[in-house]
Specification:
140 residues; 0% strand; DUF2871 domain-containing protein; 4 helices
């Protein structure tokens, strides 16, 4: 449970840093339009902070979740996918703010990696529900 609280706190720090970076980077570059940087902060808060706080509450009320063998696999896959996804948002957003023209190959690469991270995130969330179902629902 302490691991989940620490993870949530790590994402809180990342969310706050992302928010400050977005505000200061766009201000420094006199950018006032929409950019992918604007949603990094929100994604870290929801997918990181709130998700792991909810998971902590699940574990607090149903400690048998910790006995599930696949919990660590879920934890690793979920964190990799969230970090990979937000890195791609940062890359795309930074390029938008700087006005850097992207070749079609680079643009497709960024989109492809973001797509893979979305797939991994989906797989990890489905796996999370499998863990909940096997640990809690079947426990009753």
């Amino acid at each position: 449970m302490k691991k989940m609280i620490n993870t949530s706190f790590m994402y809180l720090i990342l969310a706050l840093v992302a928010g400050v970076f977005y505000r200061e980077f766009t201000k420094f570059n006199a950018f006032s339009g929409q950019t992918a940087l604007g949603i990094v902060h929100t994604h870290f808060f929801i997918l990181g902070v709130i998700f792991f706080l909810i998971l902590t509450l699940f574990i607090k009320n149903f400690p048998q979740i910790l006995d599930y063998k696949g919990l660590n696999k879920f934890y690793i896959l979920y964190n990799i996918s969230v970090i990979l996804f937000t890195i791609m948002l940062l890359v795309r957003g930074t390029m938008e703010v700087l006005g850097t023209p992207l070749s079609s190959a680079v643009d497709a690469s960024i989109s492809g990696i973001a797509g893979i991270s979305h797939i991994l995130l989906t797989v990890s969330l489905v796996y999370f529900f499998v863990i909940i179902k096997k640990s809690i629902v079947n426990h009753d």
